[in-house]
Design brief:
This protein is α+β, with helices and mostly antiparallel strands. 46% of the residues lie in helices and 12% in strands. Helix 2 links the parallel strand 1 and strand 2.
Length: 65
């Protein structure tokens, strides 16, 4: 994403929508560590590559109800 990475987007989204669960997807260990430092904001970090079943499970887990 030009000008905004996923973590920056997560920070902005959590500020604007504090109750929205945030899932991040990454294939980079350094980004996973950056996300780990934001545990209070991020519901889950999903490592690439992932299967359709894994992403569906993560979304279901993040949604209320």
């Amino acid at each position: 994403m030009p000008g905004l990475d996923g973590i920056a987007l997560a920070l902005k989204a959590s500020k604007d929508f504090p109750d929205m669960p945030i899932l991040l997807m990454t294939g980079f260990a350094a980004e996973r560590q950056r996300a780990h430092n934001l545990e209070a904001l991020i519901h889950r970090v999903i490592a690439k590559p992932f299967t359709l079943a894994e992403i569906c499970e993560a979304v279901e887990d993040a949604l209320p109800g």
